[in-house]
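Hey all, sorry for the wall of text incoming. These are the three entities for the joint prediction.
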Amino acid sequence: MSEQRTRPRYGTHLVLLLGGLVMIFPFAWQLVMSLSTQAEVTSVPPTWLPAEPQWQNYPAVFEAIPFWDQFVNSAAVTVARVVGQLLLCAMAGYAFARMEFRGKNVLFGLVLSILMVPYQIYLIPQYQIIQELGWLNTIAGIAAPGIFSAFGTFLMRQHFLGMPRSLEEAARLDGANPWQTFWRIMFPLSGPALSAVAILTALASWNDLMWPLIVATYDDRTTLAVGLSTMQGQFTTDYPVMMAASFLAMLPLMILFIVLQRRVVEGLAHSGLK
Amino acid sequence: MITRRSLLGAAGLTGATLLAGCSGDPEIDPALGPMATREESGSVTFQIWDKAQEPAMQQIIAAFGEHYPNISVSMSTTAFGSYFERLRIQATGDDLPDVFWINGPNFELYASYGMLQDLSELEGFDPANYPPNLTELYSSQGTPYAIPKDFDTIGLWYNRELLHRAGVDEPTGSWSWGEYRDASEAVTRALGSEQIWGNPGGTANQAYLYPLIMQAGSFVISEDRTTSGYDTEGAIEAFEFLDGMIRDGIAPDVRYTAENLPNELFSNGRAALYTSGNWSAALLQDSPVRDQLGVAPLIHGREEANVIHGIGCAMYARSRNKPAASAFLAFLGSEEAHRIQAAAGAANPAFLGTNDAYVDAIPEFSLDLFVEAAETARTYPASQNTTAWLQLEELLFPKILGGDGKLVESARELADRMNGVLADES
Amino acid sequence: MSHDTATAVRRRPRSRDGLWPLLFLAPLMIGVVVFYFWPILATVLNTFATFDPFGGRSFAGLDNYRTLLSDAFVPRAVLNTAVYTAIVLLGIPIAVGIASLLTQKGLRFSRFYQVLFFLPAVSMPVAVALVWRMIFNQEFGVVNWALALVGIEGPYWISAPWWSLLAVSIVGLWSSLPLAVIILSAGLQGIPPELYEAAQLDGAGTVRQFRSVTVPLLTPSIFFLSIITAINGFQLFDLLFAMMGQANPAMADTQSLVYLFYSEAFRQNDQGYASVIALLILLIIAVLTLLQFRMQRRWVHYE
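and here's what came out:
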């Protein structure tokens, strides 16, 4: 491999650059369309650059939906789900990985079976529970079902299985009970796995459409994904404004993703190990 | 707190019957009861689906507040695409809003399962104030369960500029099928190279296929609501009329219109003729080609036939706020409220004699012809479980017009499946 | 707690942790039981019932199962869903290729490339489906424009049977690729360099090294990915729904299983029959997952 390092790898760069451009093309195209006129969007051949950027398509989004309210709601729901999952999944994952009790494997299998069921079958029952709790149109109602995650539990269990037992043995000899061992030693050492769970949860939560749409109807109490779908129903013929709205809705996560890139990759990488 | 009831209720759509007895409050009186007085306080929830009509509805709520200063109304809007999905989930959970919009396809379902309040006794509501074909739509077995809010009929929108360029005269009265086809052909032949069509095709039911089928002397659903009309001669004739234009390259085929929606084509100046309702006026006002647009009466076949449909305002039969809801619903049906929405150009009001305000609100187009059409228009076809066969239409209309030589077969399949749905209703 | 001696002996190692597992698991399990187990159980029971649209139900025996067997939409939906899943699974070998290029030692601009390949992971399905609809438009879409450059007249990607399934699958592949690349990159970085050096000493070229060192050591990650990709693939709905739109002549031939479930539950108002379809989906996924676990012994190498 050492002699390879010295000569530039044109082939590799060519493949990666072309492949990478294909991957981000939809975003780039979305950006172009958001600054185009309706006629340019549907022109043959495609208009690669708008003759005059239509910046007013962006302010139009803020007139169409209460963007900031929905942004805050999306963010609050996402934070609630992330925090809730980190705690609950880590605890449960730890129990499944390190504790012995009757029916452990059966229970774990049952929890995983949730993943095999399409989410649509949960909609009506979950709605009824949230209604019963009086949580319709609240952050808590939108966030609640998503806090209990089978996948998060699975990832945390895999992570704890891979950790050396020696740390816990030492703690136990010091007289720590299982909770102290977990909370003071194991949890703080789980950074990458926790960030994997946090990232996957944040993505799912930010982009979730069907559930918030069912539990939160008031425009200013729902999430950005729902706001976007309401707009699609209304502006069927105004593609540029739709594109601007879509771009704005995705932008916060994109920025977060690019800024935290290294941590994100490191965290996600852990989700596949073992 | 999670109660035993919620746990059981969690069994889903399910639970509901198991517990029909104990869910909700049995003490709710099916009778309408007295209306709130002007001094009484209360609160009402109100659910609609059209964001574009939100401002007008806010004005109505404000006007209502002057009559009933102590009743608050909280309105929520759900996109139409998911409105009825949500409404049904709410109904299953005994959690419908006090007052809400309903439409023709869904009305009978909610009325027949006791979800809607019988409005015969509602103070200040007189069915004679609205077009009879609309009160019929919102009555079940002679009892009114919703107040007509507005109505739509269908007309022929056209693009003057494109017709002129193709040497076609603007329609002045109602064109025959033949004239419509000839005009479409002339435009497509003259301007096809610029990706401009005579008409934008499509498989719209209310605005295109229903009226055509009726104009060919047939029906969508039989009067006793037991039989589909899609395999009748008239329906086949209507399908073949549209299929013929597609085959001859006059109108775009269904694959094209699935990717390029007819309303987009027309509002972007890429189609010259477009059969659609007066609801299009609000959208076409913002069209880049609005100065070129006009509207004429709908085309006619062997018979003249138009279809009328409108939104209805209903009250939940198990509403906990009936006195306040009665006051609000009665106001929604009043002349005053209808004048407000008309003047805002939001919708064509159903209250007889208030249409002028709407016609004047959008002076660009001569909307009075939509009002005139209401007099002879036929009631929107519906049955108890209309949404079930609407979905079949959505799936199979494009197949019928798909140009695979199986037009009649596919029409029969649609009729058979629809008959199956209708048989399950009884 | 009192046990007879025999069970106590048998259980001793298992009950070592006393009530602690309960404490750790209870918060999660309460939610899981209420929000997930109970609905699943209800769905299974519902398969034996007919429903009125607002939940009232009556016992229907096996009627819904009979309907399933005679419904012509079902076999096609199974096929469509399987084809979609198969195409999305093709993303895994592609991701192996990309990941091994990305993790080459000393590669310049690698962080820049990472951003390019990972960004689709943040895409919002509602937002991105609309963009893809434009890209695949038969008339003004970029794909057919590119095909026309090489003299091919492009198909109706959104509205012709099979093409529409292919278009949806391509988008599915596109959106699942980033996670696969990330996980595989991590797997690759975990391979000790000594193994490559040893292979080089044995005279193995780049291709041989890739086949006999890289791929075998990646198999655990590949296995994990193929499990979650297959599970997600069989739940195809949002993308299909958003990309195909309404009044689409290809819809009848492109429906997925979950789409069928959705139309029965929310459009046809037939919750009983919808539950049978849900059960079918669950069974197919369970069998597939089980098969994958069975077969892993043959090809997955854990060191």
